[in-house]
Amino acid sequence: MSADWRLFLPKSVTVLRQGYGLGDFRADTIAGLTVAVVALPLAMALAIASGAAPEVGLVTAVVAGLLISALGGSRFQIGGPTGAFVVIVYGIIAEHGYDGLLMATLMAGAILVVAGLARVGTLIKYVPDPVTTGFTSGIAVIIMASQLNDIFGLRAADVPADLIPKVQALWAVRDNLSLPALSLSATCVAAILLLRRYAPRLPGFLIVTVLAAGLVIVTQLPVETIGSRFGDMDARLPAPSLSFWRWDNAVALLPSALTIALLAGVESLLSAVVADQMTGRRHRSNVELVAQGVANMASASVGGLPATGAIARTATSIRSGARSPVAGMLHAVFLLVFLLLLAPVMKLVPMAALAAILVVVALNMAETHRFGLILRTSYGDRAVLLATFALTVLVDLTVAIGVGMVLAAFVFMHRMAGLASMDGQSIIETDQADLPPGQRPRYLPNHGLPDDIAVLTFRGPLFFGSAGVLKDALDRIGARKRVYILRLEDVPMLDPTGAFALGDLLKRLLDEGDEVFVVGASHGVLRALLQTTPKPLLKRVRFVRTFDLARHQVLGKSGADSETAGPPSGEPAVSPATPG
């Protein structure tokens, strides 16, 4: 097996090869049980918030959680349903039905497998912070809004998925407000937050869920429970099936599948990075994506939800002493045991308690501190953050991510273009009034050369975001010159658009003057010019390595043609002074 393919070995295989003893198994068992206790109420709450039955969340945590840990590239990753999927899942079910969700999840899994095999795991890490913070905070708002029905005990039926229609529908049934449900929800939220503050090692979600169920049984509080809304839980692991697949829906569901794949990839790799920071280990991003893809396809085949790495549960596993992926696999086994044995008891859990759990999840997702910090940064980052946040809340998560990424790309291009300069001045210009030729700004530091010689010094990458100004470079020179010297020593990159623009500038300079020198062009820049500019034109240009050499040749001093730059290696042979 080649060294490259070893990077696709699951961490579970690596751990077993390195040696795995009884002490490791004992530590992983304790960690796995602890995480399972935390995940039990959370998985049910997330499923209900997504518009599915509570047992679906447990099935997802069992199947996907087992495969993510067994096949993934992180030693400590804990997988399952997460809050990030609630918005997209609820919308897909509302528009395409549950079979549509299963199709989208299956397609997303396939996309993740292909992405991992294509080694794009490192690229997903480049999703900018304003985009992730924007849609994560937007998801938090929507999760919070989705729980208003159960928090206030309104018992509204057929609540719309979109935020404003949802609020309008809930406001229409405000007379159904249940004080017992509201009191129970508020008490549960307060109890969870207090336990997190003063007893963070205790499983606050489970403790509050059990106490709330006990309180409802003892006091006979008139609040909805899982059993009263969903009936008996289906305490079994469904057999795999693809009967939900319909080819005529595949194209319509592709945008949703891409969104699920992106969310799963981003959140799983973020979780793996957090685990690395906590333990000093390193994950394998591409095999992690493959594992996420396999897990989501398996989850869809048994009727489950989309799944990914869960940051909070992964951190809980590490703090509980996990040593290997076995902890995550055991967490799935324990959840399966809970599903098979405790289903009759779990139906007694009040909906208000599960709503309280999701309120706390939403508060954790909101990242208000990070949101505020980004608002203090540049106008571009603020625009990306607010646009992504607003579109997530008011329109659609798929649209929000797409628009956010495009805006972030424009902001990045603007910054990259700002790095490019000509003679020390940025080539990005603000809007200006039209000026006659004699009043246009000129900047031509001549380095002590005669007035009939123009020196243009370019710095920074010349790409499609910065190449447009090259066509104006000749206008800034003013009177015609005998010799033009273009200094490119500090131009690290030239993309095709920049190469075409530079080629056009060279042609105009050759038409204006007797000689054109290009100084210090790197092999990459030369290669781009050779690929885009006619060779007869390039043969008229003198390419030299240093500015001093160009100065000597222009002033008629020692020519030293032997030091002029040739083309990059592998390109056609050229004369000593010109590429061609």
What descriptive keywords fit this protein?
six-stranded mixed β-sheet; mainly alpha; 8 strands; 580 residues; 61% helix; two-stranded antiparallel ribbon
Describe the structure.
This protein is mainly α. The protein is built from 25 helices and eight strands. Strands 4-3-5-6-7-8 form a six-stranded mixed β-sheet, with helices on both faces. Helix 3 crosses helix 16. The chain starts with a helix and ends in a 26-residue tail after the last helix.
User: Roughly what percent helix?
Assistant: 55-70%
Gap from first CA to last CA = 44 Å
Instruction: Indicate the proportion of strand residues.
Output: 5-15%
The biggest sheet, with number of strands, parallel, antiparallel or mixed sense and barrel status, is:
6 strands, mixed
Return the structural class. Answer: mainly alpha
Low-confidence stretches: 424-432, 440-444, 557-580
The oligomeric status of these chains comes to: single chain
Number of strands: 8
Shape: elongated
Structure annotation, total helices:
25
Q: How do the strands line up in the largest sheet?
A: 4-3-5-6-7-8
Mean pLDDT: 85
What's the Cα radius of gyration? 31 Å
